[in-house]
Write a structure and sequence with these properties.
Elements (H helix, E strand, L loop, with lengths): L3 H4 L7 H15 L4 E6 L4 E4 L1 H7 L3 H4 L13 H15 L1 E9 L5 E11 L8 E8 L41 H18 L2 E9 L2 H8 L1 H18 L5 E4 L4 E9 L5 H17 L2 E3 L2 E3 L3 E8 L6 H17 L5 E3 L2 H17 L8 E10 L5 E12 L3 E3 L1 H11 L2 H21 L6 E5 L2 H6 L2 H12 L6 E6 H5 L2 H13 L3 E7 L6 H4 L6 E4 L1 H5 L5 H16 L3 E5 L4 H9 L4 E3 L7 E2 H10 L10
Parallel strand pairs: 11-12, 14-16, 16-17, 17-18, 18-19, 19-20, 20-21
Antiparallel strand pairs: 1-2, 1-5, 3-4, 4-5, 6-8, 6-11, 7-8, 9-10, 13-14, 13-21, 13-22, 14-15
Helix pairs in contact: 2-17, 7-8, 8-9, 11-12, 13-15
Bound molecules: ligand C2E and magnesium ion (2 copies).
């Protein structure tokens, strides 16, 4: 059973808090997946019932014991190192793993491990989710002993239990890759050669798994591995370092000055070779990837530094959208300094009233009418003019300034809704973006409540947009806060769906009314049937959960027709209107501007 007192940092709980804690407890107790809370020293602090069912150990046998007590089979040390490295570099690890169980022997599990990042200081809590790998059976405490075969446990071949090789793809794992990297670096230093390191992350793989099924997903990963290996020379290496992340090591680059060009050629070749559709029966799957690249000696000499660089470059590539590669640059470190300068002036933005809200219409695809708007913040900088949120929101998030900014946005949007109401304009829904930090650090429920009370608007007109990643940063807290906000009548939407790591099945526990499909799927939907198939699957799944689907970033008539044919409910995009000032939007509402409705409606 999960120790809730621990999860709440031992703070005493009020009546409402206690009720939510109870709901959370029910949720965890009924989960088919085992959930373990582990502190940073590796001591298990809490487990749910599914954990005991899956492993055969009792709560008492698990709680307050170090994980090494259970993780002491052959190769366990390497596994823990691999997972530890992944947590350090990426904050999570997902994979299949063989773990010892109470009745003896090992069983194949799927394991997801996430580091919960605190506001300050080092990671203190790690959440591990344990699920049955296909073909394994539950082991109850009092269940008689079975042979591995009779309970369907896969007998493991010797190479599968070796944590240096990935059992799905046959590629090396991170631990072996690190050895090779260290070796390559010392050899390159002797010969004055360059080394290239590439981290490659498949775009939207969680969705591929979700829409096509796990088996097809695995097949696609194996095919990707084969293709990556084909791109490289025999002296080079490729490893699988996460569920959909790979690392490539290019050695023997004898011309250090031409290294950037050489590695760029490989990166482009990788993009090309991944772009070839993967044919699986009647389905054609197109895969794209983001890549982060770093070079030695240019960017560093030591393996840990280079691994960090590659991860930094990869996150820059991801931020730039799909199918991108980025070389690490000390610029990226320079960016941090520039951000500091921005932070200083951003601090005064709220009090100097430099922030403004723009509104982008959301249109019903059947009737063509404006049914909602998304409130999007801009910074009216005294010297630079209107600054995009893409530039300052990340800084605001890093520095905590998003808290006063987010509160200002929420209050201003509610006041605007009230003003439209007073003008007798048609009532619409207004979407307000929330950042992860607002969940963690603010009493969001209280702030939302006070905005509603102060303005007297209908709570149903307020729609809070949250990204998958914001929820995943602290699932327990998010469930609690979102349920309380939803109970007030306020609507909740999943924003930028498809860009995070979560799957719809994980999100069904949350009270979302709307799902917003990320713009990146729409950009190439006209010429990429794979994207249309994924979007269609997302829409079908959202509809089965009774969610309204809004597509973001519609720019062309052709995209509109496709989205109508896929039964998407609403659109938001430049095709109808870019975000506009409150004055222009008010005019739009007053004139009843609309999109040409669907034929026959
Ligand atoms: P988002 O929430 O996904 O907002 C949609 C973004 O897509 C907006 O960019 C909008 O201008 C843009 N967009 C809409 N239709 C199209 C189109 O057809 N083509 C193209 N190319 N772009 C389109 P914007 O306003 O620059 O906002 C960017 C992001 O900044 C937002 O993404 C959101 O994550 C964040 N943001 C904006 N305002 C706030 C805020 O008040 N609070 C927080 N926390 N984040 C905000
Ligand atoms: Mg949004
Ligand atoms: Mg969005």
């Amino acid at each position: 059973m999960i120790d809730l007192a621990h999860m709440k940092n031992n703070r005493p709980m009020g009546g409402e808090g206690r009720q939510n804690a109870r709901l959370l407890k029910i949720l965890l107790e009924n989960s088919a997946e085992g959930v373990l809370l582990v502190d940073r020293r590796g001591v298990i602090r809490g487990v749910n019932d599914a954990c005991t069912l899956l492993t055969g150990y009792t709560t008492r046998e698990l709680k307050n014991h170090h994980i090494r007590r259970f993780w002491k089979h052959e190769g366990a040390g390497d596994q823990l190192t691999t997972i530890g490295d992944a947590l350090w570099f990426r904050g999570y690890w997902i994979g299949r793993i063989n773990l010892p169980v109470k009745r003896g022997g090992t069983v194949a599990f799927t394991l997801k491990v996430m580091a919960v990042l605190p506001d300050h200081g080092p990671v203190r809590t790690i959440v591990a989710q344990l699920g049955r790998a296909e073909g394994t059976a539950l082991i109850a405490n009092n269940e008689p002993m079975h042979d591995a075969d009779t309970v369907g446990v896969r007998p493991l071949s010797s190479d599968q239990s070796d944590s240096t090789w990935d059992s799905l793809t046959g590629l090396p794992t991170m631990s072996l890759f690190q050895d090779r990297l260290r070796q390559a670096l010392s050899q390159a230093a002797r010969r004055q050669h360059a080394v290239g390191l590439i981290f490659l992350d498949l775009d939207n793989f969680a969705i591929i798994n979700d829409s096509l099924g796990r088996e097809r997903g695995d097949e696609a990963l194996r095919e990707v591995s084969r293709r990556l290996a084909r791109c490289l020379r025999t002296s080079d290496s490729v490893a699988r370092i996460g569920s959909d992340e790979f690392a490539l090591l290019l050695i023997d680059i004898d011309d250090v000055t031409a290294a950037v060009r050489n590695v760029s050629v490989v990166a482009r070749k990788l993009h090309e070779i991944l772009d070839e559709p993967i044919v699986m029966g009647s389905t054609e799957l197109r895969i794209s990837a983001a890549m982060g690249i770093t070079l030695s000696p240019q960017d560093g000499h030591e393996a840990p530094q280079l691994l960090k660089n590659a991860a930094t470059a990869l996150s820059h590539a991801r931020r730039r959208g799909r199918n991108n590669y980025q070389f690490f640059s000390h610029e990226m470190t320079e960016t941090a300094k520039r951000r500091f300068a921005m932070e200083t002036s951003l601090r005064h933005a709220v009090e100097r009233e430099e922030l403004v809200l723009y509104y982008q219409p959301q249109v019903d695809l059947d009737t063509g009418l404006v049914v909602g708007a998304e409130a999007l913040v801009r910074w009216n900088h005294p010297e630079r003019g209107l600054v995009s949120p893409l530039e300052f929101i990340p800084v605001a998030e890093e520095t905590g300034l998003i808290l006063p900014i987010g509160e200002w946005v929420l209050r201003t949007a509610c006041r605007q809704l009230a003003a439209w109401g007073r003008m007798g304009l048609p009532m619409i829904r207004v979407g307000v973006n929330l950042s992860a930090l607002q969940f963690q650090r603010q009493d969001l429920v209280k702030i939302v409540g006070s905005c509603l009370q102060e303005t007297g608007i209908d709570p149903e007109c307020l729609d809070l947009e949250i990204t998958e990643s914001a929820i995943m940063e602290d699932v327990q807290k998010a469930v609690e806060v979102l349920n309380r906000i939803s109970a007030m009548g306020v609507k909740l939407s999943i924003d930028d769906f498809g860009t995070g790591y979560s799957s719809l099945s994980q999100l069904r526990h949350f009270p979302f009314k709307t799902l917003k499909i990320d713009r990146s799927f729409i950009r190439s939907i006209e010429d990429n049937p794979g994207d249309a198939a994924i979007v269609s699957a997302i829409i079908a799944m959202a509809h089965s959960l009774h969610q309204t689907v809004i597509v973001e970033g519609l720019e062309t008539d052709a995209q509109l027709e496709i989205m109508r044919s896929l039964h998407c409910n609403e659109m938001q995009g430049f095709l109808f209107s870019a975000p506009t000032s409150a004055e222009v939007f008010t005019e739009m509402l007053r004139c009843g501007t609309s999109l040409s409705p669907k034929e026959g409606v």
